[in-house]
Amino acid sequence: MPAAYEIRADFDFQSIVIYQAYSEQIASAAIKNQTFEAPFSFTRMTWIKPSFLWLMERSNWAQKSGQEHILAIRIRRAGWEKALQEGVLTSPEKRVYPDGQIWYELFEQAKVHIQWDPERNLRGQKLEYNSIQVGISRYLIEEFVEEWILEIKDYTPLARKIHTLCKAGKYEQAKRFLPSEKQYVLSDELKKQIGAS
Fold it and tell me: Of 189, 190, 182, 185, which Cα lies nearest the Cα of 9?
């Protein structure tokens, strides 16, 4: 079983895939232009997630309003790790912060918010280990859009195919279509900062 707090992702030497769910208007433009543009918001936090199944839970398999389209966005690992380095957890976890006041002061200044939530399986059940979500604030969004993105793919058909198999109870068949995710190794310093195992 994976460690309680570890990053698992589809990645290679230079890049990592993160997932987001959007409305058709935002997603279609992003796929066509291979970048984000209005009505994508450059002024509010955008959350990126390397776990496909966690996003399926969050978007109800691309059925929630405004989350009907699933994007697989390949970004530079340098950008991803910069986001982690800038990150502060969304709560004062004792395993990371000596006291709540230190956390509060860091959180108030943070350009990136980091949250660990229970990973999910194909049935939507919570697992005993967690998945990371990274919230990029308006101070870094332009850099994310203009410098980090290498490729944007439409994973909506894949999400619907897997969901259809799950609804039919064909979980083993559905599992074969899941994107590959393996452990993303971090430096000891970065692990300590973001509360990774």
Answer: 182
> Which helix (H) or strand (E) is 131 found in, with range?
strand 126-136
> In 3D, which of 140, 31, 12 has the Cα closest to residue 87?
140
Mean of the pLDDT values across residues 170-197?
96
How far is Cα 3 from Cα 130, in angstroms, rounded to an integer? 8
d(CA 26, CA 66): 9
CA–CA distance, 81 with 112 (Å, rounded to integer): 11
CB 9 within 8 A of CB 182: yes
Tokens for 120? 């999910």
169: CB partners within 8 A, 6+ apart: none
DSSP 2-34: --SB--EE-B-SSEEEEEEEE-HHHHHHHHHHT
- CA dist 92 and 16 (Å) reads 28
| pTM of this structure | 0.95
pLDDT in tens, 130-160: 999 999 999 999 999 999 999 999 999 999 9
